[in-house]
């Protein structure tokens, strides 16, 4: 065995020993820390409700309102909303980042090749020299993840990807609740418009009665003037409601990803809309039922991985590389080549960096604490939102019951006052008071039903909208392949 062969064998043995050491060190390195949320969850909500359903909200929770038009709007929005499409693309970007980070766990392989010729002439026109060369090479390099630094980077990228998926679910939930509330607001304004127009017609009919009585001397000019003021006031109240209804329709179009021009919505009576009452379950279920809490947890996992990555950066790195070459003194030919083989193992350790790496560890640890406190705050906020929604739904239900009774009594009073005024038993002021009371009760009933519908949506949203953690990947695929919704039908405009 010649000296070159002996040197090659020694090199192979040395690199093999370093590789064995790297594998042992990699197996012994920690798999990553994980910070847990140390927080006691309440056993039940304080604002317990009677008569609530035992079923958790469905993923398509809006179907519980029994509104075909609302269902159509949801399909249209999920397929056309820019917010959902942006969130989908962010998930794709995060998935690509995971693949990029994971590639560092594998060796990199590269090939190279070259061929060329060279001629040089001697001085004074002497005969020159011509040379040719052709070479091909194969290079392999691999960084052994001794202390888990590369693996921690992959875990951080995976946590970011998971967070993007949960952001998509949050965007879907926010969009769905916005569509529901926007639709309810629109049909509620149309209901109030109808009430205002009916009361205007009522005031005009009463105005005709007053004018007839005035011509026969049974009513004074003051009575005519007061009723005319009532007519003008109720007529003036219609225009603002029309503007609000159109603005609500425009906002609904933008949420659905459609241009406001020509956008129409089929109308349904707001007072006939069903109000679902979903079960709330135990407060602890929110941790797996709300995508924003899942996102906060993913951020905490990512912060843990970043701490591990920063700590591993303080330790030595081991880089292994191997290469082989074929070379000849011919052009475009590798016949009878000269062969070469190289094996390299390199260990690197930073001795002095001015405290940069340790500062990164401290910074990463501070970010981890921030993520933990952010997670805890998100949980507290979620509990508050559910409690507030429970209080609001209960209050709105009781208020609608009371307002319905007020509306029925006000209608009875107005009918009696009109009959007594026609018979001359009461004055016009009595009719005016009854009319104002009925108008106010009718308008308030429509607003109360709208508030009750909105409260139901807020409760469902605070519970996570029927989402579960395992739904994230399935919903991502559905969002990516969503088709366009059917054309918008003709509908009533304000």
Can you offer a commentary on this structure?
By secondary structure, the chain is an alpha+beta fold. The protein has a domain at 70-108 and 148-272 and 280-314 and 359-480: Outer membrane efflux proteins (OEP). Helices cover 60% and strands 11% of the residues. The chain contains 11 helices and 4 strands. The chain has a 4-stranded antiparallel sheet with strand order 1-2-3-4, covered by helices on one side. Helix 4 runs antiparallel to helix 10 (428-462). It is elongated.
Q: Give, in order, the helices and strands.
A: HHHEEHHHHHEEHHH
Could you give me the name of the CATH homologous superfamily of the domain at 70-108 and 148-272 and 280-314 and 359-480?
Outer membrane efflux proteins (OEP)
Q: Write down the CATH topology of the domain at 70-108 and 148-272 and 280-314 and 359-480.
A: Outer membrane efflux proteins (OEP)
Q: What percent of the residues sit in helical stretches (DSSP H or I)?
A: 55-70%
Mean residue pLDDT = 85
